[in-house]
């Protein structure tokens, strides 16, 4: 049955969910207090790397990330087709580097369990490693090479998502400054700072780090906190970095626009998105040990975004009561871009009352902290 769905939040998660729900026949309205994609979404490096980002084991979160990676080829093609816009989507593969034998042992252990989940990865060393990444420091002992991992250019991806939503008829309202939930138990009624009301049959909360403000409204604990992630970029020639390169202190990824992005220096700073000299210095001190040529350059661009982190590291996805009138999809931390297609499908299933579709993802239920 076609319903009216209000989505709070116009970041990558909100736009992806809106697109999925509109394609399923619902009428969707997106409410954004600033500009769509203006926070964590637009600041992201756009890595689609569940094997490299999840190093501990095959928990529910890893499996969700892997599912989303597998959805991406079809998902991104659909976004491009609907929007009429293009964006970089590159299957570069990744290298997770090690400097010492102890680090290499950890990579071998990781490969052992990741190979059971579709990774065709391998440990590469010496000349074989330098053939894969010629400008890598010779101090790097070895690396775990994972061909399946990809990346995209996040700002263009988010713009294409927004355009795809508009093409399909999603109503998007930006620069609302503030929105509040006036009613949710019998119907959905949201008020913006300028006094307008937005009504719907169901509410999908995708407001990222601002979701915590709704704890009193819904009577549940919503421990979503902002973590500032600082990133810098270099202008380069001839794409000297071929893969996404990860280490225990950061990552590097080359983009088609002639830049190498390095991230991310993270700290707790509330809602402050100021770029600090200390945060960027930590990145530049690390990255020149990975690629020595970066030591001769200065970043031409520095920026920061707020990442929505949860108390246990898992996102909050699901309904808050048996009516499914209010559904959450927040707390994706540094994996919002990666998880956008899988979250869109899972959240849309919740909105439609398909509780059995949650399956393995009961660990994400938003009421688990209450």
Automatic annotation (TrEMBL):
The keyword Oxidoreductase applies. Keywords: Oxidoreductase, Thiamine biosynthesis. It catalyses: glycine + O2 + H2O = glyoxylate + H2O2 + NH4(+). This is glycine oxidase. Its EC number is 1.4.3.19. The lineage of its organism: Bacteria, Bacillati, Bacillota, Bacilli, Bacillales. Pfam families: DAO. Signal peptide: none annotated. Pathway: Cofactor biosynthesis; thiamine diphosphate biosynthesis. GO terms for molecular function: glycine oxidase activity. Gene3D superfamilies: D-Amino Acid Oxidase, subunit A, domain 2, FAD/NAD(P)-binding domain. Residues 5-350 form the FAD dependent oxidoreductase domain. The keyword 4Fe-4S does not apply. It comes from Paenibacillus lignilyticus.
